[in-house]
Amino acid sequence: MAILYALVARGKTVLSEFTFTSGNFPTITRLLLAKIDCQKEGKMSYAYDAYVFHYLCDDGILYLCMCDGDDDRRKRVPFAFLEDAKQRFVATYGDEKRTAIAFAMNHEFSRVLQKQMELFNGPMASAGQFSDVHRKLDDVKQVMVQNIEMVLERGEKLELLVDKTDALNTTAFTFEKSSRKLKEAMFWKKVKLYLLALSLLGFVVFIITWVACGADFSKCKQDHKSHKR
User: Fold this and answer.
1) What Cα–Cα distance (Å) separates residue 144 from each residue in 29, 52, 115, 125?
2) How far is CA 95 from CA 3, 15, 59, 103, 133, in A?
3) DSSP class of residue 122?
4) How many Å separate Cα 80 from the centre of its chain?
5) Structure confidence by residue, pLDDT tens digits, 45-79
6) Cβ contacts of residue 194 below 8 Å, gap of 6+?
């Protein structure tokens, strides 16, 4: 499972979006936005062919992402991503989100979406890296995955087109990039531990020497002179 597309909107007004691949899913998302009441807070998932649209509504703002495949075991990951996106969006824009025009935040926040999508698509997401966010998502298992036809009227359902080559390449690249970052983080963690151990050892040696020789090392100097005689 990979997060391929993400969007932040107020009603039918898209404030920011980002995708790793190409396709007609932004058009389908606009159809969904017209059907979703953002004033009703909550979470929902809609299956669309081989893909799933997950979204949460909070304070009149909708946070949505599209994933390839419906894996109940990893449903927490997209909702953890949406919760993270919500926190970052609210912290950055505050009440500005209530009056902003379409794509007003796209220049800045699309890069945030990209960065967090890469992070949540990587190995660290399934390694409990986001425990603080996960703790707020105890009700995710209760979120039902409904068919998209439950909300779209007859004739509105379009064939969902996604460039699978782009999607696969993006997923592989993102996973490799995240793995490399994880390895680098573990390497520097080991380096810090070694440096800490060496510093501690040096400090212990200094304390022993200080106790044995005195603060000005006069005891050791006297012993050295005695041995020479």
Assistant:
1) 19, 11, 28, 22
2) 28, 13, 10, 16, 23
3) S
4) 7
5) 888 878 889 999 999 999 999 988 766 556 788 99
6) none
Amino acid 9: pLDDT: 96
Beta-bridge partner residues of 146:
46
What pLDDT score was predicted for residue 44?
87
Question: Are 75 and 45 within 8 A, CB to CB?
Answer: yes
Residues lower than pLDDT 50 in the chain: 167-168
C-alpha–C-alpha distance, residues 219 and 213, integer Å: 5
Distance CA 91, CA 109 (A): 12
By the 8 A CB rule, do 167 and 69 touch? no
Place of tokens 């669309």: 48
Bridge-based pairing state of the strands 145-147 and 51-58: unpaired
* CA separation for the pair 46, 125 (Å, rounded): 22
Distance CA 226, CA 210 (A): 19
Angle at CA of residue 51, ends 92 and 25, nearest 5° = 60
